[in-house]
Amino acid sequence: MSDVNQETIEQSLVHITVFTSILGLLFMVVVFLIQYRYRKHRRLLNQIPRARMRNTKKDIPETALRHIYSGFQEASRIHDQILQFAQTQQKPGWHKSEWNYKRVVADSPFILEQLAKRKDPSLARLDSQSVRAYMQFLLKKEPELNPKLCKYFVEMYERARFSEDEFTERDFINFLQNFAILKKFFEIE
Description:
By secondary structure, the chain is an all-alpha fold. It is elongated and about 125 Å long. Helices cover 72% and strands 0% of the residues. It folds into two domains: 1-52; 101-186, no CATH class. It has helices at 2-47, 62-88, 101-119, 131-141, 147-162, 169-186. This is Nice-3. It is found in: Golgi apparatus; Membrane; Mitochondrion. Keywords: Golgi apparatus, Membrane, Mitochondrion, Transmembrane, Transmembrane helix. It is a single-pass membrane protein. Pfam families: NICE-3 (PF07406).
C-alpha cells in the first residue's frame, strides 16, 4: 500500500510540475505578446507627426487645462491693453501707421541694391561690402550719381543703424525725399 501511495504521489508531483511548467510558459507568452503590442503601439505613435496628433481634454489634467486657458485669457487682456495704449501714445521714431523710422532707413540699402541690380546685374553688392563701400562702388560705376546725395544716404543709414538718436518725422521725410531721387536714378524706364 505504501508503494501505491508512493507511486500516486510521484505521479501527482509529475502532473503538478507539468502543469506549472505549462502555466509558466503560458504566462511568458502572454507577457511577450503584451510587450510586443505595447512597443508596436509606441512605435506607431512616434511615427505620427506632432502637428497631426490632436490633444483632447482627456490628454491634459483639468488643473493644467485651466492654467493654460487662464494664460490665454491673460495674454489676450494684455494685448488689448497694449493696443489701447499704443493708440493713445505718439512714440518718437514711430509713424502712426506703426512704421519704425529707423528700421525703414536701415533697410533702405537693400531696396537700393535690388533696384541697382535690376538696372545692371554687375551692380550687385558683395556680401562682405559695407553700405559706405557699396555707395563708393556705385559712384565709380555710375558717375552721374550725385556724390552729396550718396553721402547723405550713407550718413542717414549709419545714424539709423548704429546711433541711439531717435528719428523725427522731419528727418524721415527728408530721407524719403532724397531716397526717392536715388530710386529714380536706378529705375528702368
